[in-house]
Amino acid sequence: MAVFDKAFEYVLENEGVYSDHPLDRGGKTAYGITEIAANAHHCPQHQFGLKISDITRDLARHIYFNDYWKFSDIKNEKVAIKLFDIAVNVGKVGMAYVLQRALKACGENIKVDGIFGTKTEFAANKVPEFKLLNALSVQLARYYVNIVQRDPKQIVFLEGWIVRAVRLPDSE
Question: What's this model's pTM, rounded to 2 decimal places?
Answer without folding.
Answer: 0.91
